Amino acid sequence: MAETRWLDDDEQATWRAYLEGTRLLIHALDRQLETDSGVSFADYELLVLLSEAPGHRLRMRDLADASFTSRSGVTRAVTRLEDAGWVRRVECDDDRRGMHAELTEAGAAKLAEAAPGHVSAVREHMFDHLSEADRAHIRDAYTRMRAHLLG
Amino acid sequence: MAETRWLDDDEQATWRAYLEGTRLLIHALDRQLETDSGVSFADYELLVLLSEAPGHRLRMRDLADASFTSRSGVTRAVTRLEDAGWVRRVECDDDRRGMHAELTEAGAAKLAEAAPGHVSAVREHMFDHLSEADRAHIRDAYTRMRAHLLG
DNA sequence: CGGGAATAGTTGACCGCGCAACAATGTCGT
DNA sequence: ACGACATTGTTGCGCGGTCAACTATTCCCG
Known about the structure:
2 copies of one chain form a homodimer. Chain A has helices at about 10-35, 40-50, 60-65, 70-85, 105-125, 130-150, and strands spanning about 55-60, 85-90, 100-105. With about 150 residues, chain A is mainly alpha-helical. Chain A is globular and about 55 Å long. The structure holds a DNA duplex (30 and 30 nucleotides).
């Protein structure tokens, strides 16, 4: 075991600002969506993913991969969304194990209703505080981090 | 309600890379701590906060504020840490409502054991992928965001 | 072809967290 | 000094998530 390279003051400050800012940001976005539209941030993201998919549907596994959560998490989330009427399950015809989650009209409408407020909140709490340079650095840095963590 | 300013492609890319990278990062740190030292990331952070406090103790409310979580979350977390022997509750003598959470010797030892691996993971998954400029931009940007969200 | 290995989705058990409600205590104005 | 109000920490409840185990199906290779 090599000598530990502790974080210096600047790294500490970066790490804490990032962690705490992120915690506050996600919390704020969750609250905004919940109070204004009755959707959790997690559910909102699933609706977005489905709305972008061809035919407004995705295999359960693809939804799990795309949302970076577990399969069981997706199972429960889709059940939740189905109960709300925003998603329906459709059997796969080429794989009898498979299930599609498909956005309903009501789901699309809910998304359309929730999106403007959410985007405004994302701007207000994040992008309004970023310069062009900030944004570019954040984009590139997190893209590299994500690639590393997926590898 | 004004016209919604949607996120352009670059903002979308930034937003997704950040969200997904963060999700993967936190998950990786949690797993590393859990498997190598039997501590969750959340608990680790509480131990750090206590270790930095004068007398290795903090009021419950201060611990909640410092960790950016709810009071009830801290109550349960401290109970958990108490059961593990890493923290003890100490009554406040100047406020009979008050409770201190105080790091025990075992808690300090656990922290000392877990810290090197955790810091290595933070470097490997985050700081190793950041240039000096990246870090400065992230530090400043999230510091502003945090201040805004606290305001 | 046939049978072991991989994969899809669900379920059960459990965990951690936030909110709202609560009792106990402290604070402050009049 | 007293009553209205604020604050502290805990709790009940529900949500959303993981992991491990399970069934059903598909894949793949000898």
